[in-house]
Each structure stands twice: as C-alpha cells, then as structure tokens.
TrEMBL record:
InterPro entries: AhpC/TSA, Peroxiredoxin_AhpC-typ, Thioredoxin-like_sf, Thioredoxin_domain, Tpx_Peroxidase_subfamily. Keywords: Oxidoreductase, Redox-active center. Pfam families: AhpC-TSA. This is Redoxin domain-containing protein. The active site is at C47. GO terms for molecular function: oxidoreductase activity. The keyword Oxidoreductase applies. Residues 2-158 form the Thioredoxin domain.
Amino acid sequence: MVDVGDDAPDFSASLATDDIEPFRLADRIGDGPIVLAFFPAAFSSTCSDEMRTIRDEFDRFPEACTVLGVSTDLPHALAAYREEYDLPFGLVADPDHDAIEAYDAVADFEGYGVDVVARRSVFVIDAEGTVTYRWLADEHGQEPDYDAVVDAAAGAIAPN
C-alpha cells in the first residue's frame, strides 16, 4: 500500500490533453507538486461531479502544481470526457492498470463486462517524488475533501 512518506511509484500510460501523448510519471517529478486523482469511470455521475469540482477549484491549486485525473478508460474516451466537461487538466488513461496497481487504487467492479476500475483516491507527490498526501474512498460515491487536497498540494511546494 502506497502511503505518505513513500517514494511515488512510477508508471507509464497515455495522457489526454489537447492531444493524446505518451506519459511517464517520472518525467514530471521535479516540476512541482503532482496531484493524482484516481476515478472509476468517465461520464459516470460521481466521477463527473468530482472532476467538475476539481475543475471549479483548479485556480486554488498552486501554479506550479500539475493536476491529473487517472482512470482505466481508453485515451480517446478521456479526451472526449475532458472536452465535454471543459477540464483544464490532463487525464491519464490506464487501461492496462499499471497506475492503479502501482498505487493500490484497484476497485473490483462487476458491471458492463469490466472487472476492475480505479478506486476513487487522491495522492499528492512533492517535487522530490515523495507521496505527501493520500486519500482513499471508503465507500461508493464518496468524494475527497477538496480543501484538504488543495492544502496538501500547497504544502508539497518546497520552500525557497
């Protein structure tokens, strides 16, 4: 289980921004805090509420912070989802489950022919690559404490 104080596990996936491109977490370490917001499924109700809330709170995150949503959806689905909800942050497509397994953010799901999805969770990683915040949903439909996530991102900035 990844916990506060651990080195952030690396993973590779696809990143949906204005384009779809390869993504490797290790390449982003050192640029400032990183918020990884794992969510089960694009276009579902609670996930959409969560991503819209992060969108609406986006200006509260430190400028140096990289915010990323992460799900097991395919890259093109996440690109459409990002556009539909006008999300100002990238979405990481993890259909091979590399990220969710690395972060122990796996949720069993027996619907629509899908066995596994991301467990709703949030990790904040500082510029040194250390996990400084971890939150895991305890129940279906639970959302993170957004103030705590923003505070954790601000606290992950190294003092000058």
